Amino acid sequence: MAITRKKDKQEIHQPATPTMPGLPKTRVGRPRSGTEAERLNLLLDAATTVFLNEGYGLASIAQIARAAGVSTRTIYQMFPNKAALLIAAVKRLVVNELTVVIENGVLNTCTPETALTTLGTIIVTRVTTADAVSLYRLGLTEVARIPDLAEKICEAGPMHTEKLVATYLQAQVSRGTLQMADPLNAARLFIGMVTASPLQHALFRGAHLIHHAELDQHIKSAVKLFLSGTLPRGK
């Protein structure tokens, strides 16, 4: 994947998620003021900021409450502890959007190539955001110190994402549009193919620019390679 430098401000350019008829559009910005969704997003935004600034060990519910402008009681009504808050923040990064797309059922009306490109684009664009990369690093630092927490983060993020993609793949196996012995393992392989290179750049070359077209081509190439081993013969 080619990398281009800019003299001043640099960022990763992400491809837009493909749109398809029937696929609900992701609303840009926050929900209407006062809604439960808005309050949850504000809280998770504040929690993410505190976790990244202070580290998980030093972060406290009181700090998160001050950052969110709510009481600690309000937080405890929603989450039993700060571990649950961190897990919710991780889950929000990718899983929530994937869940909507897969449960909507519209992917089943598309070709496997279009559907997998959609899934791959959602996953890549979400895991390479600044918050996602920072939370990934945070999780790595906590593995040795709090292994149980690291395992829960893995379950809420990567493992849940694998299961969602496997749900789509299993549906295609049942319909005869794809063939594979183990959809869950195939999901792991697919996610690795689409995310490995972009995530590596985001982690270690965050100041570099990845062009939209290059990232888009990377996803398409990964999808094509995956389908070369999973499409029924003759298709």
Automatic annotation (TrEMBL):
Q: Which GO terms describe its molecular function?
A: DNA-binding transcription factor activity; transcription cis-regulatory region binding
Q: Which UniProt keywords apply?
A: DNA-binding, Transcription, Transcription regulation
Q: Tell me where on the tree of life, at the top rank, the source sits.
A: Bacteria
**Region entry Disordered, spans:** 1-34
User: Where does the HTH tetR-type domain lie?
Assistant: 37-97
Q: Which InterPro entries match?
A: Homeodomain-like_sf, HTH-type_TetR-like_transc_reg, HTH_TetR, Tet_transcr_reg_TetR-rel_C_sf, TetR_C_Proteobacteria
Q: Could you tell me which SUPFAM superfamilies the record lists for this protein?
A: Homeodomain-like, Tetracyclin repressor-like, C-terminal domain
Mind telling me which Pfam families this protein's record contains?
TetR_C_7 (PF14246), TetR_N (PF00440)
Q: Which residues bind DNA?
A: 60-79
What is this protein's name? AcrR family transcriptional regulator
